[in-house]
Automatic annotation (TrEMBL):
<keyword id="KW-0732">Signal</keyword>
<dbReference type="GO" id="GO:0043190">
    <property type="term" value="C:ATP-binding cassette (ABC) transporter complex"/>
</dbReference>
<feature type="signal peptide">
    <location>
        <begin position="1"/>
        <end position="29"/>
    </location>
</feature>
<protein>
    <submittedName>
        <fullName>Glycine/betaine ABC transporter substrate-binding protein</fullName>
    </submittedName>
</protein>
<dbReference type="GO" id="GO:0022857">
    <property type="term" value="F:transmembrane transporter activity"/>
</dbReference>
<dbReference type="InterPro" id="IPR007210">
    <property type="entry name" value="ABC_Gly_betaine_transp_sub-bd"/>
</dbReference>
<feature type="domain" description="ABC-type glycine betaine transport system substrate-binding">
    <location>
        <begin position="43"/>
        <end position="307"/>
    </location>
</feature>
<dbReference type="Pfam" id="PF04069">
    <property type="entry name" value="OpuAC"/>
</dbReference>
Length: 313
């Protein structure tokens, strides 16, 4: 197997020292002044992962909590799921958005097989019991992992599903390459599990920063890791291959925070539930597009959308 890193996104070692270094190094806004509202006097540190959607969700959360009177600190943009999760557990941040599939596989140690119905409820109950982490404000949108290929190549090859892809690359080893980010390459619900499920190891792995993958599919690699709410799938003329064996786990967005934080500030749940109810697949694709395609700043996009929805004054 050829392993070819081009623009590696390094995951930090999840130790207290490295968490503190990464979190302190993230962009941090001046704390907002508290005002009137259900959360007046509360001081809340808002985190996120480093990709666009997670940062937007962090900015939305920060602005909604500020509208309820909280003083917030912005620590969005932490690299890697394991790192931002450890930041939550260690108290470096108070709240951030995560995904049910990530909770099921990466934090709770389950496999991608025999995933239960009602995954949010199962993850929420087990994570609360095991780690004192509360999952609240489940949103309607689902941002799942997927594998995509260029539209033109799909039309020529006839490959429409991941099973089709497995058969095709077995017969065409010169086209057996995939672009993926470091986290997907190492996660059980990512590339290793995908290869096992479909019985088709990719002989050439091109490791890229996630944001570079979309433009490189059909150029540096035949296939690429994508996420289903990313508007660049359309703008780069890609096709998501059908996961016909149902390998990828559900990745519904939800807010996570320590139960102790929720106990101290129960108003957080009502405020963020009002937000989450409006976050459909179409809404998230639209917000992501404004940042990734139109070049707007996540904070500006979040503020304008919240005002248009009447969620902030």
């Amino acid at each position: 197997m050829t392993y070819r890193p081009l623009s590696t996104r390094h995951l930090a070692v999840a130790t207290a020292a490295s968490i503190a270094l990464l979190v302190s190094g993230c962009a941090e806004s001046a704390p907002s002044p508290s005002g009137d509202g259900a959360l007046s006097g509360a001081e809340i540190v808002v985190g996120s992962k480093e990709f666009t959607e997670s940062i937007i969700l962090g900015k939305l959360t920060q602005l909604v909590l500020e509208a309820e009177g909280a003083t917030t600190t912005d620590r969005t943009g932490i690299t890697g799921s394991s790192t931002v999760r450890e930041a939550l557990l260690s108290g470096e941040i108070d709240v951030y958005w995560d995904y049910t599939g990530t909770g099921w596989v990466n934090y709770l140690g389950h496999t991608t097989e025999d995933v239960p119905d009602g995954l949010f409820d199962v993850v929420a109950a087990e994570d609360l019991d095991t780690n004192d982490v509360a999952w609240i404000a489940q949103a309607p949108f689902e941002n799942s992992y997927a594998v995509a290929a260029a539209q033109e190549w799909v039309g020529e090859s006839g490959v429409e599903s991941l099973s089709d892809a497995a058969e095709y690359v077995a017969e065409h080893p010169d086209e057996n390459s995939i672009c993926a980010a470091s986290e997907f390459i190492g996660r059980d619900d990512g590339l290793p599990g995908l290869e096992a499920a479909y019985g088709s190891p990719y002989d050439e792995i091109v490791e890229l920063d996630f944001n570079l993958i979309f433009s490189q599919v059909g150029d540096s690699c035949t296939f690429g890791e994508v996420s289903t709410t990313d508007a660049r799938i359309d703008s780069e003329e890609l096709v998501v291959l059908e996961d016909d064996l149902g390998f990828f786990v559900e990745y519904r967005g939800a807010v996570t925070l320590l139960q102790s934080t929720l106990d101290e500030h129960p108003e957080i749940e009502d405020a963020l539930t009002a937000l989450s109810e409006k976050l459909t697949d179409d809404v998230m694709r639209s917000l992501n597009a404004r940042v990734d395609i139109d070049g707007e700043e996540p904070e500006d996009v979040a503020a304008e959308w919240l005002e248009s929805e009447g969620l902030v004054g």
